[in-house]
Design a protein that fits this description.
The complex is a heterodimer. By secondary structure, chain A is of the alpha+beta class. Chain A is built from five helices and five strands; from the N terminus they run ββαβββαααα. Chain A has a five-stranded mixed beta sheet, with helices on both faces. In chain A, a hairpin with a 2-residue loop joins β3 and β4. Chain B is of the alpha+beta class. Chain B has three domains: about 45 residues, Uridine Diphospho-n-acetylenolpyruvylglucosamine Reductase, domain 2, CATH 3.30.43; about 100 residues, Uridine Diphospho-n-acetylenolpyruvylglucosamine Reductase, domain 3, CATH 3.30.465.10; about 100 residues, 2-Layer Sandwich (Enolase-like, domain 1), CATH 3.30.390. Chain B has a five-stranded antiparallel beta sheet. In chain B, β2, α2 and β3 form a beta-alpha-beta unit. The chains are: A alpha+beta, B alpha+beta. Flavin-adenine dinucleotide (FAD) binds next to β2 and α6 of chain B. Chain B: This is Carbon-monoxide dehydrogenase medium subunit.
Chain lengths: ~160, ~260
């Protein structure tokens, strides 16, 4: 066992992990932050997306020890300080960007990474950016709409309207 | 996944020392290796992460050569390889954004997946693969599916890409994995044209020399009329037959030449 220390959603945390412990396992099982979902555990679906030092990564495909000393953001840290939903989360609710909700934490984290880099993405850029995030329910259109809305853009033009 | 010891050295010297242990293996971005470990297709006793080694990071253009550190992520190459636009575009289209934030150039070419993108760029550019021990020409580096000239524990430190006059990579994506079903990288230099094909052959990435000769005489899609790679030796799977892949090689090469202009 090795000691790992990181900042998760602004709070310093540490724990004892094995070499093989995944970041997703550390977040969910050691810290109890089960908002980060594990859908495929094979780096395909993106449900486990979190930010490490501000960059989106699939936490099922990164070792916890690789994040030693890093700053990690998960879905649990996305709400506004007063507990209300942030702009992206509120837009997902408003535009029915989720059904079962399993993919949603990863979708929200992927969207947050996109909007940080590109505050007014086009529909095509949003779809391209989400290529590593799978949703079995929505058919994606409402997710794309939610992200358009969260970036302050008109959603009326999104495909299949 | 079996357990292993994890170490993250800060210098290449420490990494080399750590790799001298029995059953030690290099960890790049882990985007291929971690799934492999989960399937128990590999079971190293020790993983030596390269992510803490500053000397393996970064993109630098100098005297017509773009040098990319082996630990540089696909996302960083996409953002910073502006001096070689076709290479930046290729990197920006590998996998998805989260994988691009972890996966590295060194890991991709060390793995030499027959459908990976980078091997096509390295081979078409006539690049030099720099390791801790030596410099290896791209023509000697790739030795068939998942096989390279690397010795056990030999760390790739950088790749030096001569910057071409014109180039383009065209990838026909396998729609589920987005790996290349067929990908063709065409690069035009003052002394000739190089064409490298990935995704198609059972021997992994290869050069299409007939196309190179035709394009050296006339760098235009029409120069490829009537040329075809043989279907024999192409990959056949549920996504495409040998003949289909052989046909796509011609189509994607024409598109790459048209896009390179
Ligand atoms: C969902 C998904 C989609 C993908 N899609 C694509 C795609 O479309 N196109 C594509 O080309 N790739 C794709 N990949 C693969 C991706 O590009 C990987 O990042 C890459 O193949 C391996 O790089 P890595 O740094 O993650 O290496 P690792 O997984 O860490 O290592 C791979 C191998 O290389 C060795 N190695 C690593 N670094 C070095 C080094 N510096 N010197 C010597 N040996 C080293 C390791 O020991 C290991 O054997 C995809 C991966 C995933 C998970
Ligand atoms: S659980 Fe990590 S990508 Fe699916
Ligand atoms: S809402 Fe169910 S998987 Fe996306």
């Amino acid at each position: 066992m090795t000691q790992v220390t990181m900042t998760v959603n602004g709070k310093a945390v540490s724990g004892e992990v094995e070499g093989r412990t995944l970041l997703s396992t550390f977040l969910r099982e050691h810290l109890g932050l089960t908002g980060t979902h594990v859908g495929c555990d094979t780096a395909q679906c993106g449900a486990c997306t979190v930010h490490v030092d501000g960059k989106a990564v699939k936490s099922c495909n990164m070792l916890a020890l690789e994040a030693d000393g890093a700053s990690v953001d998960t879905i649990e840290g996305q709400a506004n300080p007063d507990g209300s939903l942030n702009a992206i989360q509120a837009a997902f609710q408003e535009h029915h960007g989720l059904q079962c909700g399993f993919c949603t934490p990863g979708m929200v984290m992927a969207a947050a990474a996109l909007l940080k880099e590109n505050p007014k993405p086009t529909e095509a850029e949003i779809r391209h950016h989400l290529s590593g995030n799978l949703c079995r329910c929505t058919g994606y259109h409402n997710i794309v709409k939610a992200i358009m809305a969260a970036s302050g853009q008109d959603v009326a033009a999104v495909a299949a309207e | 996944m079996y357990n292993f010891e994890f170490v993250k050295p800060k210098t290449l010297e420490e990494a080399v020392a750590a790799l001298s242990a029995e059953e030690a293996q290099v960890l790049g971005g882990g985007q291929t290796l971690i799934p492999t470990l989960k399937q128990r297709l590999a079971a190293p006793a020790k993983l030596v992460s390269l992510s803490g080694i500053e000397a393996l990071q970064g993109v630098r253009a100098d005297g017509g050569v773009l040098t990319v550190g082996a630990g540089t992520t696909h996302a960083t190459v996409a953002a910073e390889a502006g001096a070689y636009p076709a290479l930046a575009a290729l990197a920006g289209n590998i996998a998805d954004p989260a994988v691009r934030n972890r996966g590295t150039l060194g890991g991709s070419i060390a793995n030499n997946d027959p459908a990976a993108d980078y091997p096509a760029a390295v081979l078409a550019s006539g690049a030099t693969v720099v390791t801790i021990a030596r410099e290896i020409a791209a023509d000697d580096f790739f030795q068939g599916m998942f096989t390279t000239a690397l010795n056990d524990g030999e760390i790739i430190t950088a790749v030096k890409f001569p910057i071409p006059e014109a180039a383009s990579y065209q990838k026909f994506e396998q729609p589920a994995s987005r790996f290349a079903l067929v990908g063709v990288f065409v690069a035009k230099y003052a002394d000739g044209v190089r064409v490298a094909v990935t995704g198609a052959s059972e021997d992994g990435v290869f050069r299409w020399s007939e196309a190179e000769a035709a394009l050296a005489a006339n760098f235009a899609p029409e120069a490829l009329e009537g040329l075809a790679v043989p279907a024999e030796g192409m990959i056949a799977d549920l996504h495409g037959s040998k003949a289909y892949r052989a046909h796509l090689v011609g189509v994607m090469t024409k598109r790459a030449v048209a896009a390179a202009g």
